[in-house]
Design a protein that fits this description.
single chain; 342 residues; Isopropylmalate Dehydrogenase; five-stranded mixed beta sheet; four-stranded mixed beta sheet; 12 helices; globular
């Protein structure tokens, strides 16, 4: 119920995923609206089911409040299905904060993980994608959090994107070891000691030039970088359209370069991967953009299936078992603990 065109995009993506990948999809939300949309598709023989949830979390809702007050929301019901073993992953194009609260409270965290991280997938000039984390799940990270992000990002890249010995870099304001603030300098020493292919400090430009495969940073910095990237793509597209339509020769030329522009757009299209995984939680959670179309939702479902089938979480726990013990968890009365490693 969360995308800009909900539930149209979610239903279309579910039908495509069930047809092309053979996965079973549970569409969670207001049953009447979902079935009305399903009626537009031929779903005979497809493993698509509807699970009714009477409430919807809007983009204006605060995550923690929505979790407490909207107990029959599609986000909470979907997270409960995963917790109870009735589903293997949760995909949502809705309120990211509400999804994060729901999965952290209902699922808890992996052993060895203090904080979750959102892993954004970006195109690069050499054709291989790069992964940056965290892009917004946590802010004010500590050095050991960046250390855990590095391990999780390396495993995700290797297992899901297929890169052997992915190159891991630490985002800083210079490539020299002494560059950066106190956080990055301390994290640099921790990452050097890990059994990963750590290449040292990298700069913002390295997110797109293919020099590294995984870039580690604090969630505040990562989210700013993400939003700048989204704005740059939108601005570049607008300027390009204006340039191609400015005069007759450009209009004639635009016909000739149309195929190249389509290929270029495809490389920048967020829908190619569907969404970004939230790493470190006890389940597969894929966060999609609010403007996701059916193709993006389909690919997010495929990503969630791969995440479960290839046992990414088990590999993360096994790798972190030999690193450092997580921070002690404080007990919270009444509600479940906001972050529980077990």
């Amino acid at each position: 119920m969360g995308s800009d065109l909900a539930p149209r995009s979610e239903v279309e993506g579910a039908v495509l995923a069930a047809r092309e990948h053979g996965v079973e999809v549970l569409l969670v939300g207001r049953e009447e609206l979902i079935r009305k949309e399903l009626a537009q598709h031929d779903i005979s023989g497809l493993p698509v089911r509807v699970v009714h949830a009477s409430e919807v979390v809007t983009m204006k809702d605060a995550g923690a409040r929505a979790f407490r007050r909207k107990r029959d929301s599609s986000i909470r019901v979907g997270a409960q299905l995963v917790r109870d073993g009735k589903a293997d992953g949760l995909i949502s194009a809705g309120n990211t904060g509400a999804v994060g609260v729901a999965v952290k409270l209902l699922w808890g965290g992996l052993e060895g993980v203090d904080r979750p991280a959102l892993a954004g997938i970006f195109p690069t000039s050499d054709g291989r994608p790069s992964v940056m984390l965290d892009i917004g799940a946590s802010v004010d990270s500590k050095p050991q959090h960046l250390e855990q992000f590095a391990v999780m990002g390396e495993i995700f890249y290797r297992v899901i994107l297929g890169g052997e010995k992915p190159r891991v870099g630490l985002l800083s304001n210079g490539t020299e070891d002494v560059k950066g603030n106190e956080l990055t300098r301390e994290a640099h020493q921790l990452l050097k000691a890990l059994d990963i292919n750590f290449v040292g400090n990298v700069e913002g430009r390295d997110l797109y030039n293919g020099r590294v495969d995984v870039i580690v940073c604090d969630g505040f910095i990562g989210n700013v970088a993400l939003k700048i990237s989204e704005g740059l793509v939108e601005t570049f597209g607008t300027l390009l359209k204006e340039a191609l339509s400015s005069d007759l020769s450009s209009i004639v030329g635009s016909v000739l370069v149309r195929r190249a522009l389509k290929l270029f757009k495809k490389r920048l299209d967020y829908s190619e991967y569907g969404g970004v995984p939230m790493l470190g939680v006890r389940g597969g959670c894929i966060i999609c953009h609010g403007s996701s179309n059916g193709i993006a939702i389909k690919n997010a479902i495929r990503l969630a299936g791969d995440f479960s089938d290839r046992r990414v979480n088990e590999k993360i726990e096994a790798e972190l078992a030999g690193v450092h013990a997580p921070e002690p968890k404080s007990e919270a009365g009444g509600e479940p603990r906001p972050w529980a490693g077990k």
